[in-house]
Design a protein that fits this description.
The complex is a heterodimer.
Chain A (H helix, E strand, L loop, with lengths): L2 H7 L9 H29 L8 H23 L3 H25 L1
Chain B lengths: L5 H33 L1 H8 L14 H10 L8 E6 L5 E10 L5 E10 L6 E8 H5 L6 H12 L6 H23 L3 H4 L5 E2 L2 E2 L1 H41 L4 H9 L15 H12 L3 E7 L7 E6 L10 E5 L5 E5 L8 H14 L4 H28 L8 H30 L4 H22 L3 H25 L5 H6 L4 H40 L1
Antiparallel strand pairs in B: 1-2, 1-7, 2-3, 3-4, 5-6, 7-8, 8-9, 9-10
Helix pairs in contact in B: 1-5, 1-6, 1-12, 1-13, 2-5, 2-17, 6-8, 8-9, 8-11, 8-12, 12-13, 13-14, 13-15, 15-17
The chains are: A mainly alpha, B alpha+beta.
């Protein structure tokens, strides 16, 4: 039996998520994951090693931005606990924001 | 075998389908135009060949022509210069200075000319802001149309790049979720079940998608990088690390530390530098740029194509006034680095130009398969819900754009030849006909309920247009094959042949569909009798 027919034919094993939980997940996986990925990219310029050419800390965050976003997106979509997913993504984003803030006020 | 719990599988299937529903048609447009853009250089050479081409990309004597051009440009516009060959080997040469527009966004003002590679005569001079420099740019109009549609969907900056960046992320989502959904990945690479001699649509989608997974992932990753890097990534990093100074960020990336000596000094001849760079790299010159032409701090940067057997090209830097060799550097940064090497991989992986026409042909075929996967996936999703009235408009749009987009692109190409013969503005004429054709296809799929018949008609029209395009090229003043063979411009006969083969394939596909449609009722009747 293929995946599609299983999904289409079998009754759901667990109760479907509420409409509110669904939209909270959409917000987390959509705009919030994008904002968090942007903050990781921006913050990466401050904590990544500069490398031999002194540009790795600038290049790598831009190069890896799609991967950072995709990781956060799939985590937000698939995490069992929505609350924990919010906490993890908020922690990552806020830690980057704090680093950027400290850098901004220190210069 | 990838084993996922049912809840995750259901979520991934929803992600896979809904990402296609929301962005699939735009993504399909980007993929189809990207497939054409793989052969952008060849399309340019085919559409606008030259009477007498040059054997070298940067022919001897070009240095003097560029000096004459520089003498005709106001000194304040000589801040930056670059040159590279385009359709037929014509050299595109541009002087400009960086400015900011009324909204504070970076823009350019300068002068552009095209230089004939054999006679070294300048033509088609355009001056002013970015729009003025791009207006009346007829040399590369046809490939530029495809590339602009692929890169920014003709949406103004920076929104066009942001949009295609988001589409790249959607493709990444579809590729990753598709990979995780394939529980039996190896088996599905070879599973083609035939029912009543008809290939299962789902199997075809899964097989094409499975073979295409790695390529789709690579294209999506590199494509979203290219879209986001300049429109979003560099401005964000410039804000954090350079106080918002994007120019400083770019200078750091390039790795040529800025010097400032505004005293006037004549520029050395570029020919000698190009000859020296060619000798060092054992490869042809790809791109030439000069900072501060005519000043004591002038510096020429010569980027080389990869030498035979190499994937990456190198870059040489020369002192402008003396022409003396200064140093070799990678494309980004002053010395090789991990990030710079990773960046160097992005272009060959996205453009597929690392092994000449062979790798381009492979990228073309894989891109074609990716377009098929996108279209067949959308068709599967919408056909499964065709009985629900809310889904019907999307099903009709998928049919109209799926088959109408290739037709609209070919109509735009035909418009290019007609508009050029009539001396009309090329880009507006091509865009107008492209949109009219696409609109007509959408209207047809909206009005006619029989989607198979609409698809078949559009396929016949596409085939007829493909067959007619080489004839139209000749009718509008294009050269015959004999002078093209004599001057080794093989893009013209090669693309003419490909178009004819493509046209015949479309007509054969339409004939096969018609036969299948005729047999379908008989098969159904036979099944009923058997039952």
């Amino acid at each position: 039996m293929t995946t599609v027919t299983t999904l289409a034919g079998d009754p759901p094993q667990a109760a479907p998520p509420s409409r509110r939980a669904f939209w909270l997940r959409v917000v987390l996986a959509g705009p919030l994951a994008f904002v968090c990925a942007t903050l990781v990219m921006a913050g990466g310029a401050l904590w990544l090693p500069k490398g031999a050419a002194q540009i790795d800390n600038l290049l790598l965050p831009i190069l890896l931005f799609p991967a950072i976003w995709a990781t956060l997106f799939f985590y937000a979509c698939l995490a069992h606990s929505l609350r924990r997913a919010y906490l993890v993504i908020a922690a990552i984003g806020l830690s980057q924001l704090a680093m950027i803030g400290i850098h901004y006020f220190a210069r | 075998m990838i084993s996922l719990p049912q809840r995750e599988t259901r979520s991934l299937l929803a992600i896979h389908g809904w990402s296609a529903v929301f962005l699939g048609l735009l993504l399909y447009t980007v993929i189809v135009t990207g497939v054409a853009s793989v052969f952008g250089d060849e399309i340019g050479d085919w559409a606008n060949p030259i009477e007498q081409p040059s054997a070298q990309r940067f022919p001897a004597g070009l240095g003097n022509a560029l000096q004459q051009f520089a003498d005709s440009v106001a000194p304040e516009l000589r801040e930056s210069f670059f040159a590279f060959p385009r359709s037929g080997g014509r050299i595109y040469a541009q002087f400009h200075r960086d400015e900011k527009d009324a909204n504070g966004r970076p823009t350019e003002r300068g002068v552009v000319v095209d230089i004939d590679p054999r006679t070294l005569q300048m033509s088609n001079r355009r001056e002013g802001d970015e729009d003025a420099m791009n207006d009346d740019d007829t040399v590369n109009a046809l490939p530029d149309f495809f590339v602009n549609l692929h890169v920014r969907l003709h949406v103004p900056e920076p929104w066009g790049l942001m949009l295609t960046g988001v589409l790249g992320l959607a493709m990444l989502v579809a590729a990753v979720s598709g990979f995780l959904l394939h529980r039996h990945l190896i088996r599905e690479l070879f599973t083609l079940r035939r029912r009543k001699k008809l290939l299962s649509a789902r199997d075809a989608h899964v097989v094409a998608g499975s073979w295409n997974l790695v390529f789709s992932f690579v294209l999506a990753f590199t494509g979203s990088f290219f879209s986001f890097a300049t429109s979003f990534g560099v401005p964000v990093l410039a804000m954090v690390a350079f106080n918002g100074d994007q120019q400083a960020a770019f200078e750091t990336f390039v790795g040529n530390p800025p010097v400032n000596d505004p005293r006037p000094a004549p520029m050395a001849n570029l020919d000698a530098m190009i000859v020296d760079a060619t000798r060092r790299a054992h490869a042809e010159t790809f791109f030439v740029s000069v900072e501060h032409w005519g000043r004591a701090d002038a510096r020429a940067t010569i980027s080389m194509l990869p030498a035979e057997g190499e994937v990456f090209g190198t870059t040489y830097v020369y002192d402008g006034p003396s022409g003396a060799y200064q140093y070799e550097k990678p494309p980004l940064g002053r010395v090789p680095s991990f990030g710079g090497n990773l960046f160097s991989l992005m272009a060959p992986l996205h453009f597929g130009n690392f092994a000449g026409v062979l790798s381009k042909a492979a990228w073309f075929a894989l891109g074609f398969a990716a377009a098929y996967v996108a279209l067949s996936g959308m068709r599967l999703w919408t056909q499964r819900r065709i009985d629900q009235p809310a889904w019907r408009p999307l099903a009709q749009a998928v049919n109209g754009i799926g088959y109408g987009l290739p037709l609209a692109l070919i109509v735009a190409s035909a418009t290019y030849f007609v508009a050029r013969a009539l001396d009309a503005d090329l880009q507006p004429a091509m865009m107008r006909m492209f949109l009219i054709t696409l609109g007509a296809c959408l209207l047809a799929s909206w009005l006619v309920r029989d989607t198979a018949r609409v698809a078949q008609t559009l396929l016949i029209l596409t085939g007829a247009m493909l067959l007619g395009l080489p004839a139209l090229r000749l009718l509008c003043g294009g050269p015959t094959w004999a002078p093209m063979f004599a001057t080794a411009q093989f893009a013209v006969p090669a693309l003419d042949t490909v178009l004819v083969i493509g046209g015949l394939a479309c007509l054969a596909g339409a004939y096969r569909t018609a036969t299948r449609m005729r047999r379908a009722p008989q098969t159904l009747a036979l099944e009923r009798v058997t039952e």
